Amino acid sequence: MHATRSTLRKILPVIIRISLCTGTLLGCHAPILAESALMPKPLQQTDFVILSAPQSVEAFLEEHIKLPEKPFANDMAQRAFLRRTRQDIEELLATQGYFSPAVTFDRKVKHETEIPVIQVDPGPLTHVESVQIEFQGDIAAADKKQQKKMQQWRKAWPLKSGKPFRSADWENAKAALLSEITYEKYAAASMVRSEAVVHKDNATVALHIVIDSGPAFYFGELEITGLERYSPEMIENYRPFRTGDPYSKEQMHLFQIALQSIPHFGNVSVSISSDSSTHAAVPVYVSVTEAKAQRIAIGGGYSSNNGARVELNFSNHNFLHRAWNFNTLLRLEQKRQTALVGVNTLPDQNNIYYAASASMQRTDIRDLVTVRQRVDAARIYQTPNLQRQYSLSWQREEKRPDGAVNQTNEALAFDWRFRYNVIDNPVNIRRGTVSELRIGGGTELILSDQDFIRTYGRQQNWWPIGKNGVLYLRGEAGYTFAASRFGIPQEYLFRAGGIQSVRGYDFMSLGVREGNAIVGGRAMATGTIEYTHWFMQNWGAAAFVDAGSAADNIKDMHLFVGYGIGPRWRSPAGPLALDLARSHETGTFRVHFSMVVNF
To answer: 127-212 sits in which CATH class?
Structure first.
């Protein structure tokens, strides 16, 4: 048996032009090996054929050449096999940069039978001698910024002079360069010349590429199909670009993600035509499949913070026939029970939407029972990287600490929230930053039992360490300015401990003691340093140190430290963590289960 023609077609490069100096082919190669590495040795052998090749091509030929396991029918069949195998070996070696191989045949006596021996000498490997990359079309007359990009593309070209030349590397480099050019403005760019001239006498190759950018493209109007219940304006408001903006693949991608993230559509496709005649105002084709407007969902789960959970949710994504999102939620957890009803409008052309909700919640955490009724209204500006929110909320809270006096607190609070994030992958982050700042408060003059101003800030950063490691740093701090903590609902005070706080300590176990209960204080600060190493594609392990505290005054804060290790598993929704953490304060161990990415 020999390498199939289909295998060869996958391996051999697309040859656009062959020019002969002493002899010219397109291909690739690896670094020139030492003399000893080229000494042939038996690579494969059966009772009918022996293949002998040096280490430099041993694994490659072993993968693609299969020797017969049955005797040949006759001498003619044996000769035909040897001829085909010689041709296959020469073509295969050309894809690896060996353009002058010598494939010879010999005989070896085995068990009184002559067995053919295929001896392979791959010859010298080919290296890149020179690289010439030219641009033509509108891009050649572009501004200085675009000229600088062209220089960057030339500099980033991987097959530089002196580098090995492999067919796969050659094709990948061309594809990557063309992809860079078509990413912005030049959607119809094409490669009009792609030439690799091989000089067999000195085993070098000269590369020459010419790319025609075509005209610069600009976004035109949307052409939408698939809408039945919803108006085209709904889709218009989600696009991150406007008519007349320069074309950008990134903007197209963000547009599609934005439409896919809302529950109104099941499938979304966003595309353009690369027809150069429409470059001045290229239409953007949006095809959608509408999802069911009403849904009922039942779910369950477990968190080491709040215990087991079961929930029932009803949603209507075409509330009042306005495409508003109406939701009701009943969630029952061991430590927290919540009932909520809310409605959100859709973003307008300025990325602004409005939300309103009413909720009731009961919690029983660290011997503190709270029962809360709350009404909220918010104005939210949101883009893929930025969120600004202004909200007004009224709440009434019954606070029942075990062994202390019960209280009822009311507050009408205005809250401002800012969040900015730049991350490489929202599910599995390797590099990114998330910043958050919140300021809110209330006054006795307007429906509040206490004057207070609550401030809070959080910073999270991820950095790649090597190929498989990620370093994560998190810091948060908050302070509530008020005469005392009494009369302020727990939401505007601080407790610490547990996941996304200080592991090794129970959820919200760090705070101010009232009787037997732990209640919120006016000051809080926590931080994390964590390193995760991925040993396999979906499995890794992390080591971490958490530290922090919560108290009624900064001077009363005592630093609590927790540290530990735990496995990580990349689920479709994000990495899951099972951490074993030790409290440095008490020496006790606790297990924490969580979704790692939580921002």
So the answer is: alpha beta
